[in-house]
Design goal:
Layout lengths: L3 H6 L5 E3 L8 H9 L4 E4 L6 H14 L4 E7 L7 H14 L3 E6 L6 H6 L3 E6 L2 H10 L3 E5 L14 H9 L6 E4 L5 H9 L5 E3 L1 H4 L8 H9 L5 E4 L7 E4 L2 H12 L12 H10 L22 H21 L2
Parallel strand pairs: 1-8, 2-3, 3-4, 4-5, 5-6, 6-7, 7-8
Antiparallel strand pairs: 9-10
Helix pairs in contact: 2-3, 3-4, 8-13
Length: 322
Amino acid sequence: MKTKITEMLGIKHPIICGGMLWLCKPDLCAAISNAGGLGNITAGNYDTGEELQAALRKTKALTDQPFGVNITLLPSFRITQETYDDYFRVCCEEKVAAIEVSGAPAKRYLDQVHEAGIKIFHKVGSLRHALNIEKLGYDGIFAAGIEEGGHPLNDDVTTMVLTPRIAESVKIPVVTTGGIADGRGLAAALALGAEGVMMATRFINTKECIVHENIKQEIINRQEQDTTLICKTLNLQGRALKNELTQKVLDIEAEGKDLERIFPLITGQRVKDAWNNGDVNGAAFMVGQSIGLIKDVLSCQELMDGMVKDAEAILRRNLERF
């Protein structure tokens, strides 16, 4: 399955792993890249540029295929501007295949990244932001619908509408993200004008993702309506799994006072602990509505090969109808 994205990045399948704090580390990244997609190292997993560099070198020891790095430029309890500078410097030194930026535009880094021969993408949730990203000189756009886990834009536009609106309006390649978990989603994204898909939640339920089995089983048990949007009152909207903790956050927001009580509930350390100990009510797990489509745990190779096979069959079947 060849698209502008597979040709641009030198990958076999038009499937990219999105950033996931504490989960996108060398073993999972390499497994995805070895299976033909674009694996991801999430820079926020590391406190310094040196730690990120060690992770990139470990990934290179596990795969000779291209992989990317996610750098999220959002307010952080622990990541400073100097650390962000180090993240970009290290990515350029190690010449990763691509960088995915979310949050604030990475204007100050674009020349540095392009001089290193790296492709840079920005995740957006609106057409106006996509047009600005194209104007700034990015290489591609990740069109993120409201269905995505993490921090969707509060425009609340769905993937089904956002993808074609952006694809018809820009000249650089568009990748769909939000609600994608199988070959049907891949086929739909291509039909809507995208050149590939980016997934995160679906990769949690792979054999190579180091997560407590309680969490993987919880994702299988849950349905598409089992996520909620938290932190809207903080202007940091996030889609997370419905559980006791997210309900507590929503209750505090509804009270409209003492909002600083929310911050200890949504720290990265709390999520890190819960991924490891399996406490399904102990953290805000940033997962998307695609949990309703996840029914099993597969290897990355099984997942992506199956997705491409199913997508090709769907597209072929629909062509034959005409």
